[in-house]
Specification:
The structure holds three protein chains of three kinds.
Chain A (H helix, E strand, L loop, with lengths): L3 H47 L1
Chain B lengths: L9 H9 L2 H33 L13 H28 L2 H33 L7 H22 L3 H32 L14 H33 L4 H15 L1
Helix pairs in contact in B: 2-7, 3-4, 3-6, 3-7, 4-5, 4-6, 4-7, 5-6
Chain C lengths: L1 H17 L1 H22 L3 H24 L4 H5 L2 H7 L4 H30 L4 H29 L5 H29 L4 H29 L2
Classes of the chains: A mainly alpha, B mainly alpha, C mainly alpha.
């Protein structure tokens, strides 16, 4: 039996899982920054209109 | 009533400072890139030694090379659970928020390693024993470990209030830790009872040229865990403190850095 | 202090008996689940005999998890549980009383039903005694460990579904021990060690689980 596809497959799965685990929080981080910005823009706008 | 004496002990001050989200965010941000760098370097070195330089195995041929990702992943899956339980313990007793966050963020990373261990173990089993799955002690234990992780993650995500959710999931993690050795031994026993496969995964004794890449990969994965855990924890702090001032400053600095 | 324990035990049993028909639900579930196995696998007596201990025990696990939701549910819904926590009585004892009541009502019927299930699954007669003993020792452990899971998921809307995921890994050792004991009998091997470990598990659970369940309740109601 040719062992190569099993070896390649294993490392491929490991790479995909580790990559996804590493990248997922970075995507959340971008979304978090976006939320922070929109929240603060809304705050500044309401402050401007009130002053 | 206790009065706090001013403590000059630097270690205590350091731990105390880590409890402050903006300080934690700032401090960890400085060395996270280094953790990733060490992980990358060790992985490249380990894979080179393991996939290219090490000779094929006498019994298993080339397929034993799966060991270099399977075994470190399995070790990490167990180590992370213990660390998660340890952090959970501290979080429950001292109610330190950053500990809660780090404990909870350990769970998905641990689950990822468990998944890798299961998948690579299965793929290793096919050329070695002929089937994609065997209910041997180690794989079965890993499967139960995955369920334990999913339970912690599920419970944490199911509650709306993050601190309460973290406390509940922390208690679950601790209960799981107490049970983990019992589960481990009972599964091992069950396996021998039913005369399952008693072939050890690595077959013959490991030669030094095969051992080094294994150890290097094992250490590399520890750096991955550290880097990923800190990254996730920082993001969680941002998400939970959306409305606080320090996140606004951080977002401003980040935007300024990107635009410069 | 023990006054509170027995008072609560009496109260829970009284409440359960007022809704007698509900006591039959776990029993009915157990019967249905076990009868599904021959239907799904085939009625061959030799095969059924071999899988009988596992099937009966797995059915017991499932029935326990289903019945566990009721452990704290009604007290949680009408605020009694909060009163218990505020009452100053040790919550651990309160939890233990409720678990005992729950076992008498939901676990003991499983033990009593096991001869019927053994006949259905063609379990060899000499194994029946050990099966009953394992169920008698094991189902309280299931209730005890399960109560921790119930405490943790109490405030969730779909807590029941998550509950299975939480407790099944913890149930694995009990399942392994109990089925090993029963299978040892039919193989003619010594089974004393397995029963001894089950007893040890019961003692450990009785002493530790109520604390964990009480802590879980305090978190859920915080």
């Amino acid at each position: 039996m040719n062992h190569a596809p099993f070896i390649w497959g294993s490392y491929a799965i490991a790479t995909v899982v580790l990559l996804w685990t590493a990248v997922a929080p970075l995507i959340s981080k971008k979304a978090a920054f976006k939320n922070i910005r929109t929240l603060n823009q809304a705050k500044e706008q309401s402050r401007d209109t009130n002053s | 009533m206790k009065t706090d004496k001013p403590r000059k002990n630097p270690l205590v001050m350091f731990i105390h400072k880590l409890g402050s989200p903006p300080w934690f965010y700032d401090f960890t941000g400085k060395f996270v890139p280094w953790l990733w760098a060490v992980f990358a370097a060790l992985t490249i070195w380990g894979l080179y030694l393991g996939l290219i330089k090490a000779p094929p195995d006498y019994l298993q041929g080339e397929s034993y090379r799966i060991m270099y990702i399977h075994v470190p992943a399995a070790w990490m899956s167990m180590m992370i659970y213990v660390l998660m339980a340890f952090m959970s313990f501290i979080a429950l007793i001292w109610r330190i928020r950053t500990m809660e966050i780090m404990a909870m963020n350990s769970a998905p990373i641990g689950a990822a390693f468990t998944l890798i261990a299961l998948a690579t173990g299965s793929l290793w089993g096919r050329p070695t024993w002929g089937t994609y799955w065997v209910w041997d002690a180690r794989l079965t234990s890993e499967l139960v470990l995955l369920f334990l992780y999913l339970g912690v993650i599920g419970l944490y995500k199911a509650m709306d209030e993050p601190r309460k959710a973290a406390r509940a999931a922390s208690l679950l993690a601790l209960v799981g830790l107490v049970n983990l050795p019992i589960i481990h031994f009972s599964v091992k026993w069950w396996n021998t009872l039913h005369q399952g496969s008693s072939i050890s995964m690595t077959g013959s004794k490991i030669d030094a040229s095969m051992l080094w890449p294994l150890l290097i990969m094992a250490i590399a994965m520890k750096f991955y865990y550290g880097a990923n855990l800190i990254t996730r924890s920082r993001v969680t702090l941002l998400e939970q403190d959306l409305r606080k001032g320090w996140t606004r400053d951080v977002a401003k600095d980040a935007a300024r850095e990107r635009n410069s | 202090m023990s006054g509170a324990f027995f008072a609560l035990l009496r109260r829970d049993l009284l409440l359960a008996f007022r809704r007698r028909t509900e006591l039959l639900f776990p029993v009915a579930f157990l019967l249905v689940v076990v009868s599904l196995f021959p239907l799904g696998i085939g009625p061959g007596p030799a095969l059924l005999a071999r899988i009988a201990p596992g099937v009966i025990w797995i059915a017991a696990l499932l029935a326990t998890v289903i019945s566990l939701d009721g452990l704290f549910r009604s007290d949680f819904d009408d605020g009694t549980l909060e009163q218990f926590i505020l009452s100053g009585h040790p919550l651990t004892l309160i939890v233990l009383a409720k678990i005992v009541a729950h076992w008498l009502v939901a676990g003991l019927p499983l033990v009593l039903l096991s001869p019927l299930l053994a006949i259905w699954m063609n379990l060899p007669l000499e194994s029946l005694g050990v099966l009953i003993v394992t169920l008698f020792l094991g189902t309280p452990i299931l209730s005890l460990i399960g109560s921790i899971g119930v405490g943790l998921t109490l405030s969730l809307k779909r807590g029941g579904q998550l509950l299975s995921l939480l407790v099944f890994p913890l149930y694995v050792p009990i399942l392994i021990l109990a089925t090993a004991a029963v299978m040892a009998v039919s193989d003619g091997l010594p089974y004393g060690a397995f029963l001894g470990l089950l007893i040890a598990g019961l003692v450990t659970s009785v002493t530790l689980a109520p604390f964990a369940a009480a802590a879980a309740l305090k978190i859920s109601l915080s």
